[in-house]
Amino acid sequence: MADEPVIDVRDVSFAYGAAPVLEDVSFQVRPHELICIVGPNGGGKTTLVRLLLGLLRPGRGRICVLGQPPERARLRVGYMPQRVDHDPQFPVTAIDIVLMGRLGRGGLRKALGWYDRADRRAAWEALDMVDMTAAARQTYSTLSGGQRQRVLIARALCGGPELLLLDEPTANVDALGESRLLDILKRLSRRMSVLTVSHDLGLVSDLVERVICVNRRVVVHPTSRMTGQVFEDLYGAKQRVVEHGEQTPGGPGGG
Amino acid sequence: MGEFLEALLDPQFPLLRYALTAGLLASVAFGIVGCYVVTRRISYIAAAVSHCVLGGIGAGLYLQTVAGLARDDPLYGAIPLYGAIAAALVAAVAIGLISLYARQREDTVISAIWTIGMAVGLLFLYKTPGYAEPMVYLFGDILYLTPHDLWLIAALDVLIVVLALGLYNKFLAICFDEEFARLRGVRAEWLYILLLCLTALCVVLMVRVVGIVMVIALLTLPAAMAGQLTRQLWQMMLVAVVACMVFVTAGLALSFILDLPTGPVIVSLAAVGYLLAALVNRLRGVRAA
């Protein structure tokens, strides 16, 4: 049971109408693995994440998340979207957003959406995991891009997930924010399986062992074999590959 | 001002007291639901629901007249309000389902329902024997408020406030990030339709005071004003409720003193309040920068 894959995708195809987005996709994610999905825009990365969350159903094939169909495993999965499309002046504090990760777990109180002491403790612990307790009472709209991403990661962590799905966690984040986020991902991967979508493999290559390359079809590579030729095949054009050095976190993007 | 207070306390002139009571009661529901409408960015949908209310009012007036209810009958005047409630709820559910699931252009279909609701109402009013007062419902007239209306407004107010505050965390979650809420097992679609129904009931509360055409302004302007000054949704609701009460009271007083129609005065004051709050917010931003 311990070696049962956290994510098991077999022969999955998906199309929006007549336009195929993913074809014959198969891969597995092992427990406590930190794995990265890369690929060009429109290649099917976000569609793959939405399939794993059960927000979309595959046209063909089978997906198992934590041994269950994705829609039944949702409460065991923490999800951080790339961005939240909300009113820019939305009056809500960081701690209130993190508490949303505790919604939907049993009992009349939860049916009404009321939080108890355990929920609040879990929210503070989640904020602590991403080093954001100091900003807990700040309004979300006043936070920087990196702080907002960390609040959304805390929201994903607050429900005690066994699997974390992160869609472009370093998008719209400055260099310092990127470096902090990568440290947090490294820490989290010791506790749970983490699958992250990234436009910039160079940033996460030190953290992940394997990379899922998505461009309608999927090829899984060990990170060490991600050469310029692999990127060229994936993106369909010559790519500039920049190695991120240890001393220059958040340097120019690679891939 | 003294003249207004005298009239307010005059036992021979209860209409002003009825209007103020209705306005203050409705302000509680308006302040709370208005904040959800503003943060969820569904003002346009709420406006469509409010205009559909005329269909129910028209049908109610027609039935009341055809049934031959006498003016001193306790139900006289109440039937159009019950019609308004029914029409508002039907419109809220229909528009909610369209905005969630329709494959047509959402704004086109909602605009169509908006105008169809008004057209049905005007046709009923046209066919109602005798004189039916469409302007009373379109622009409001406090002279038509009755004690029965006040009881109905109070009952609806309690229902709206209990539901809107009881489900606060869930409404907050769907207003901020509906997809995430759905992933946490929240029935986001049901809550969205419930929110539209609460909005529809709010419209009915104030239809006699400010009228169908302007009621949406009173629902959104105090909330938008409060949003400029607060950092959390519950604070925004509190400020919106107080602001709405102030606008209703000041609007009633001014319209009485200057002999102006009440609805437009209340809405104009709300607009001034919103502009002032936006200015204060801007100045605070400049000072902080």
Primary descriptors:
heterodimer, A: 255 residues, Rossmann fold, 6-stranded mixed β-sheet, 3-stranded antiparallel β-sheet, 30% helix, B: 289 residues, mainly alpha, ABC transporter involved in vitamin B12 uptake, BtuC, globular
Question: What can you see in these coordinates?
Answer:
The complex is a heterodimer of chains A (255) and B (289). Chain A is 30% helix and 23% strand. Chain A has 255 residues and is an alpha/beta fold. Chain A has one domain (7-235): P-loop containing nucleotide triphosphate hydrolases (Rossmann fold), CATH 3.40.50. In chain A, helix 5 (117-129) crosses helix 6 (145-158). By secondary structure, chain B is mostly helical. Chain B is 81% helix and 0% strand. In chain B, helix 3 packs antiparallel against helix 11, helix 4 packs antiparallel against helix 10 and helix 12 (233-258) packs across helix 13. The model of chain B has no long low-confidence stretch (mean pLDDT 88).
